[in-house]
Design goal:
With about 280 residues, the protein is of the alpha/beta class. It has two domains: about 120 residues, Dihydroxyacetone kinase, domain 1 (Rossmann fold, 3-Layer(aba) Sandwich); about 130 residues, Hypothetical Protein Tm841, Chain: A,domain 3 (2-Layer Sandwich). The protein has a six-stranded mixed sheet. Helix 3 crosses helix 4. It is globular and about 55 Å long.
């Protein structure tokens, strides 16, 4: 059997994790001298409560190699094979931790894949691999399905401010938007594993419309495509509103609405709304 391991930035719903028997390895969130395991020691609500009161923006760190190694050992002891999917290596050292841990088990059936994405993008890639593995496919076949999905993954997001991306050093090409007026909302994308700027809009409403246009344009011409994932950071009402607008525009239900993990919240802040989808296979 193929068992899947993800890091906590994917943040799928707990029932999804239980249903598919997925292992999740947490990143660390650091408020000064206090360290919390992402989605283990601190929930998204607890995180944003602390963030609002914090004098300094918290930081994050990758999971220790030992955390991955412990999970690998459990799975291997059960006689199963392992497929690992991590946040983009251009955003975090998590991929390297996962690879280093795999090196501690020479010859073991472990495959580690760099998603070049995170959050909803990782979830969609994970679903592609799960579909193959749960239909009886091999680890190699499941890994091929995940790898194929990486190039078809699209993630667009609207943030309230670039402050968190700038302070966290994950701003990438979006740096050209720094210093813009406060009423400007940046529309960003994950491209080749990095945060890149698309454009600026003057309101949240226009931002939602632009995210929908980007999704509709990307999927235009395809008769069938998988349902997108909607992502938010402490903005459930906005996410629900956006999801309803998106469903109406593309004529397809949403796969799920997910809350970002605290480790991602450190870098995008509250109020973010995003959409992730896969381009259909050619």
């Amino acid at each position: 059997m193929v068992r899947f391991v993800i890091d906590s930035t994917a943040a799928p719903p707990e029932d999804f994790i239980r249903q598919h028997r997925i292992y999740e390895v947490p990143l660390r969130v650091l408020f000064g001298t206090e360290t919390f395991r992402d989605r283990v020691d601190i929930t998204p609500d607890e995180f944003f409560d602390r963030l609002e009161k914090a004098d300094k923006i918290p930081t994050t760190s990758q999971p220790p190699i030992a955390d991955f190694a412990e999970v690998y050992q459990k799975i291997l002891d059960e006689g199963d094979e392992i497929l690992v999917l991590t946040i983009s290596s251009k955003l975090s050292g998590t991929y390297q931790s996962a690879v280093s841990a795999a090196g501690m088990f020479p010859g073991a059936p472990i495959t580690v894949i760099d998603s070049l994405s995170t959050s909803g993008g990782m979830i969609l890639q994970l679903q592609e691999g799960l579909e193959v593995a749960e239909a009886g496919g091999s680890r190699e076949e499941a890994a091929e399905a995940v790898s194929d999905a990486i190039g078809r993954t699209r993630v667009y997001f609207l943030v309230n401010t670039l402050k968190y991306l700038q302070k966290g050093g994950r701003i990438g090409g979006a740096s050209r938007f720094v210093g813009t007026l406060l009423n400007i909302k940046p529309v960003l994308q994950l491209e080749d594993g990095l945060v890149e700027a698309l454009e600026k809009v003057r309101s949240k409403k226009r931002g939602f419309r632009r995210l929908i246009e980007l999704t509709s344009d990307g999927l235009r011409g395809y008769e069938t495509f998988g349902p997108p994932v909607v992502i938010h950071g402490r903005a459930p009402e906005d996410a629900q509103k956006f999801a309803s607008m998106l469903q109406g525009a593309i004529g397809r239900d949403i796969s799920m609405i997910v809350h970002i993990s605290p480790a991602i919240g450190v870098h995008v802040g509250p109020g973010v709304v995003a959409v992730a989808y896969l381009l259909p296979k050619k």
